[in-house]
Amino acid sequence: MSGVNKKQDDDNDQQPLVVWLDEVNMSNVKEVGGKNASLGEMIQSLKDKDILVPMGFATTARAYRYFIQKTKIQDKLEELLSKLDTDQLINLKDIGEQARQLIKSVEMPDDLKESVADKYRHLCEKYREDIKKQQQKDKEEASLLEKLKEKIWVDDKKDEADDDIYILDCAVRSSATAEDLPEASFAGQQESYLNIRGVDNIIASVHECYSSLFTDRAIAYRTRQGFGQMDVALSVGVMRMVRSDKASAGVIFTLDTESGFDNVVFLSAAYGLGENVVQGTVNVDEWYIFKETLKNRDKDGKRLNPIIKRKLGSKEKRMIYTSGGKPGDEQTKNIDTSDKERLQYSLENSEVIKLADWACLIEDHYSKIHGKPTPMDVSVTAYYYHLFQ
Asked: N or C: which end of the chain has fewer CB within 10 A?
């Protein structure tokens, strides 16, 4: 079992504990993991193309390693994980539970807490100022303002007994990374939390994400792939929630996922949060968009309709947020859609075309980075057209 070596210690000492997403890109995968690095890449490189990615911040790999060293649990974790039956994984459940409880049993270091809290407060202030500017600009458009204020506004009412007035709803997402294997994929093995608000709850969610580095499935995957259990660190991304529960969300691919044909964009969507689409729990709407028509214009400078096929899904459910607010709360629930909603598409054709445009721009950007065609899959929400990697 290999632990954190001297070189890693020296490298980690040069990293901040927490960074803004717009401070990182794909060259920082080993510091913030693939998910957070990709979000930062899109924010940095594609904002001039009007592609919207929600702003946020991420704890670094250094922050995780600092956490296990400062709390003096690194050696205990190594000793515990060395007892894992790596052949049959017979004691996996017991080892995993002990590892998670060990991480949960210690207090997060104060300086790491404050680093996370400071970024969260600034994130709240950023969106409060953005909305104030929007209110000033569009003060006569009441309907638009109501949408802008909904669940994005930070409460101005301060409880004198509590300095925590920051209640911006955020997604708290795990992004694992291996120091010497930055291209390794650990997607879907750690926990993420939606609809988290308030400084204390954000910090608690980051702590929960740290413990999820040792879910049973994550330990088993690393064992099968030959990764040292202590060679993997965790970055945690915190970003503003977008109210897709009030609109639609889905997934977009820059190829046909069944045939592999790469000259179409394939989009699937349904009402509410995107989990129903990703998990396949609803019958979704689908669209195929032809790239050549999407990118080109006729002799008069007009673009023909690039949607070559679409299919109406029944979309019986809409996933929405609950009141939630902290890890452990029920964060989402499904409600029935109306007959009218089921008989109409969850996205307008103009929204579909806009999202397909963005998907192609993202695909072109990443293809240049990798020096070869790089099909993309991106989670999307149609509420203000925000994209999530």
From this structure: N
Q: Work out the mean pLDDT of the chain and round it to a whole number.
A: 83
Q: Which residues of 13-51 are buried (b: 16+ CB within 10 A; e: fewer)?
A: eebebbbbbbebbbebbbbbbbbbbbbbbbbbbbeeeeb
- Spacing of C-alpha 254 from chain mean position: 19
C-alpha to C-alpha distance for 149 and 166, rounded to whole angstroms: 15
Q: What is the mean pLDDT of residues 139-149?
A: 48
Whole-model pTM: value is: 0.80
pLDDT for 161 equals 35
Residue pair 25/37 in contact by the 8 Å Cβ criterion: yes
3-state helix, strand, coil in the chain (%, to 5): 45, 20, 35
CATH code of the domain containing 375: 3.30.470.20
Q: Is the pLDDT of residue 384 over 50?
A: no
**Distances 230 to 62, 101, 114, 235 between C-alpha atoms, Å:** 13, 16, 26, 14
Distances (CA, A) of 293 to 264, 297, 302, 368: 10, 7, 10, 22
| The Cα angle at residue 341 between residues 340 and 346, in degrees rounded to 5 | 145
Together in a domain, 165 and 210: yes
**How much is the average pLDDT of 189-213?**
92
What is residue 251's three-state secondary structure?
strand
pLDDT band for position 81 (50/70/90)? very high
CATH of the domain at 181: 3.30.1490.20
What is the model's pLDDT at position 181?
58
Q: What is the mean pLDDT of residues 238-265?
A: 89
Domain count for the chain? 2
Asked if residues 233 and 357 have their Cβ atoms less than 8 Å apart, the reply is: no
Boundaries of domain holding 227: 6-240
**234 and 251, same domain (yes or no):** no
d(CA 86, CA 106): 27
Evaluate whether 264 touches 291 at the Cβ level (below 8 Å): yes
Instruction: Of 334, 379, 30, 383, give the one whose Cα is nearest residue 192.
Output: 379
Contact 73, 210 (CB under 8 A): no
